[in-house]
Amino acid sequence: MLAQLNGEVLKKVVGFALEAASPNNAVAAMLHGPYAGGYADEKTAISVLLITDSDKISLKYQFKRLNSGRVRLLIVDRGAFERDARSEWLGGIFADNLLTPYEPLVNKEYLWSQEVRFKKSIVEKALTNLVLGFPEMSRNFMIKPEYFMFEAITRRAALFPPIIYRFLNITRDNLRERNHSMMMRGFKAAINELINENKIYVFEDLLKINEENISTLQEKRKHRLINLFKSARSCITRYVLSVFPGIMDSFLEDYRIYRMYSAENGELGEPFRMLRDPKKYILIPTPSGVISFSDRVTIEDFISRNLSERRILEHRIRRLSGVLNAVYLLRFAQNGSEEKIIAKVFKDWYGWKWFPIALWSLGTRGFAVLGKTRLEKEYALNMLLSSHGINVPKIIHISPEEKIIFQEYIDGISASKIIKNLCGERDKDEKDKMLAAIRRIGHEIARIHKLNVSLGDCKPENVILTNDGRVFFVDLEQAERGGDKSWDIAEFLCYSGHYASFSPIEVTETITREFLYGYLEAGGEVRNVRRSMSPRYLKVFSFFTPPHTLLVIVNTCRKILKTKTYNAADNIS
Question: Domain boundary at 408, 442, 472, which?
Fold first, then answer.
């Protein structure tokens, strides 16, 4: 803290800095490290970063005596410093001093402008990583401003472990509020600039990423050539290595102070785990309330929580069918009534579990494999469809860290069961009811497609008809914005044909007709239907749907399409 250094000492420190800048001019100078962070002791050297007006790359380290103390001078030219602040050109070695607390000694305005520039680049990179890492869920993220500070701290600590002790020192109990406040000033200014640029916006005192910005970041995702400017980088490396011992000396001092303070206060522990998890500062909405993205709740935790909060008298867990995911049915009984909840654990698809799917749809359809990706799709598309009045299971809780989603259990009959029952039904009224249900399913899928969403896994098993006639869509882990809508149609019809393959061909024809009538009446695009009959789709389903059944489906589609009027755009194959 500046209070630890009297005015006479500060004057001498500034004098040393100005002298060290010669023959160039001093652009700015700052106090950083322990004295700026408020945790220096009598053995601590005074760390100063000096930016000079050199017209060529200049990285130097000097060490000076000051009475009984020491001054550590890290000197960098203005061009290299600004480039490091703009794009971490030197790995942030110099610009990182703008992340942690510092005190200006020369040219406060210049240092502030570079701090905001540096922290703006940190925020923009963090936003990009969120969008590319969570292309669907990022639309739902509600971000606390502190996220960007802790994300920067965590990322740097992971890449360069010696810096961990500096972060732990500035966040000790008696300094945390003061230092966090100092660090957040620059982040808040950077965030305001991004708000003015319409890249993020404020929502209920939290930050959300602008939809246009998400689209832009996804479109601009490109691989960079790592050997770009290779010769220049190799030249810079020699300079960095020349000052590296001085930089490491500073970090070793942070380590010494941390060990001494922790031993005195009994706070020794695994350093990296003592850093705050930045994901705590990302919130995601669910129909049951807002939760932290760092939430870690197992099935057992969920049951315990419900047992204590609702005084449930008994519960049972039953694993449902499913190889690619672990799906559990939780049954809670209280006062004679029963509630059912689905717990879906998203496992990664590896080895033999994934290979048959990849082989089955080779060249036609790609599937999300990682559990994290499928959980993201299930959550984000559920929230999107629900907001537009599409019936999907209500999300009760989500545990991103455990890759579990807890959803309401939809009590009803699946479309696959309806189709199987239809094949053997003799009563005309019952058959009409079943066909009306198939027509409603086509209608609802068209509504989904009009939202520019494809279901991805549109098997009849994933469509549930409730007793009150509502159509629900479950298992949305392959759904996506845009996507292949023709695949949805082909999959539903070909699976339906599979279930009806041992029935008269009139049954398959009727099912296909009713589904397409519902789809087209609700505004589904004709070209989606036409493309669904492409050989590239039919070859996939020929493994389990007989050729004569596929032929019936194709011919029925063609007959229906001939009765429709469509514009030239629909002729695109």
Answer: 408
Task: Note whether residue 286 is domain-resident.
Answer: no
Is 564 within a domain? yes
Residues 139 and 119 in one domain: yes
Q: Are residues 364 and 378 in the same domain?
A: yes
State pLDDT tens for residues 247-291.
Answer: 788 888 898 998 888 877 766 667 877 888 999 999 999 888 899
Q: Which of 289, 298, 350, 341 is nearest to 320 (CA)?
A: 341
Q: Are residues 397 and 473 in the same domain?
A: no
Q: Whole-angstrom Cα distance, residue 546 to residue 540?
A: 12
- Based on the fold, state whether residues 357 and 478 are members of the same structural domain: no
- Tens-digit pLDDT profile for residues 456-478: 999 999 999 999 999 999 999 99
CA–centroid distance for 179 within its chain: 28
* Omega prior to 23 cis, within 30 of 0: yes
Q: Does 418 score more than 70 pLDDT? A: yes
Which CATH number characterizes residue 333's domain? 3.30.200.20
Evaluate if residue 225 carries a pLDDT over 60: no
Q: Which of 553, 535, 409 is nearest to 495 (CA)?
A: 553
Q: How many CB atoms lie under 10 A from the CB of residue 106?
A: 18
Q: To which residue do tokens 């705050």 refer?
A: 276
330 and 442 both lie in a single domain: no
Whether residue 289 is contained in a domain is answered as no
Specify the pLDDT at position 362.
46
For residue 339, give the nearest of 290, 291, 396, 387 by alpha carbon.
396
* Helix, coil or strand: residue 51: strand
- 114 and 12 belong to one structural domain: yes
Same domain, 314 and 375: yes
pLDDT in tens, 503-555: 888 999 999 999 999 999 999 999 999 999 998 888 888 878 899 999 999 99
**Which structural domain range is residue 363 located in?**
295-408
- 387 and 515 in a single domain? The answer is no
Strand partners, 61: 74
Give the DSSP H/E element, type plus range, for residue 339.
Answer: strand 337-345
Total domain count, the chain: 3
- Taking Cα atoms as reference points, which of 314, 308, 305 lies closest to residue 332? 314
DSSP states of 460-526:
GGGEEEETTS-EEE---TT-EES--HHHHHHHHHHHHHHHTTTS-HHHHHHHHHHHHHHHHHTT--H
Question: What percentage of the chain carries pLDDT values higher than 90?
Answer: 54
Q: Does a structural domain hold residue 287?
A: no
pTM greater than 0.85: no
**What is the enclosing helix (H) or strand (E) of 292?**
strand 289-292
